[in-house]
Amino acid sequence: MCSFLVAETIQYYKSHGSDVYMLSLDASKAFDRVKYTKLFKLLIERSICPLVIRFLMNVYIFSTASVKWNNCESETFSINNGVKQGAIISAPLFAIYIDPLLSKLKVAREGCHIGNICTNAFAYADDIVLLSPSCTALRNLIGICETYANEYEIKFNPDKCTLLIFSDLINVNNLVNIMLCGNRIKNVINEKHLGHYFSSTYNQTFNLINIENVIRDMKVRTNTIVTQFRPISWKSKTILFNSQCLSLYGCQLWRLDDPKIDELCTTWKVCCRRLLNLSQRTRSRFIHHIMDTPPILDIIMYRMLNFFITGLASEDTLISNIFKNTLLASTSYMRVNINKIIAHFNIDYHDIFSLNKNVLKKTLYNMKGEKDWQCNLIEELLSMRDGTVTTDLEDLEMNDIRFMLEQVSTDFLNR
Fold first, then answer.
1. Quick one: pLDDT at residue 401?
2. 205 near 7, Cβ under 8 Å?
3. Which GO biological process entries does UniProt record here (predicted)?
């Protein structure tokens, strides 16, 4: 969600011909620097239940630790700051601790906006991103961050902070000099944020690198299954492939009009054929039945639709308003995706906007295929096997027919 909001803000400004400066802040040992006095004061100001605050105070204030090395163990010592990394409650506590910074950045009204919605800063735990259309506004935002860091004893590491500039100007990186804590922030052309790659060298900002990584991983993992799991049954291979090779993290942010999507679909078909040793002449429309999974494009579209409906229904007004603006804005790449999904699954545009949950059920039904189509397919395969008809399926290998017939028949009987 955080990466989507960042990408949508960048896309909004780029579509209006404006530059965007994306600054990724790195807080050194942020979780370990949380001061208990500041944290509990913020909890009290938020009217958290006193019993909960008392419980957290007992957990953190009276915490002790010791260092064990080989057979030696140090004396116990008290822990005076920091939230426990890995604990379930640590991320929400740090979010409360960092919230004053985000509030100050929002009140400043500097940086990027989508309509009347302030989108100048986004944070997920200790990953903070500042967005600004100008260097002046970005420097003002940095000044607010430095003031907060001094007050709450958070230390930003300028050496690990990066600046990504989305601009049509040539050599713009050599013209911009942004300072943090007296040190110059390095300019980069690619940046990874929460697992998503952003790039200033491509118009689509992040699509190219992300999809190329997915294609490469799919090929590598498919080759591993083929070479190391050769003796197992084809059913087990499909289960392994569907669970291990379809690494589609972040596909909700891709552009469906990107040519790399077609390359990904082609790679998926090639990997499926190689996995089950199918003939290269196997019809593409049969592969997803053999693999017992929807086509990869349908999976991507379904995840996009589910993500978009979740965003529209969000209780956070900031998130829901951005999604509504996205649906109405003609320049939004997500609007392009939604239009393609509507046409592909034959669903109603107004059902999406009204948060009709039946949209997802209808989409799933379309992905699994109509029952009548499956009946016709079984009939066609049986007729071809018996030699009673001649169809465009006659160039299939018998193994392909066996797989398809078994799979489709099983699906039909389970309905």
1. 53
2. yes
3. DNA biosynthetic process
Residues lower than pLDDT 50 in the chain = 205, 370-373, 375, 385, 388-396, 408-409, 411-415
Q: pLDDT tens digits for 221-244?
A: 999 988 888 888 877 888 888 888
Which pTM does this prediction carry?
0.75
Please name the amino acid found at residue 118. Answer: C
**What sign results for the dihedral spanned by CA atoms 85, 91, 96, 99?**
positive
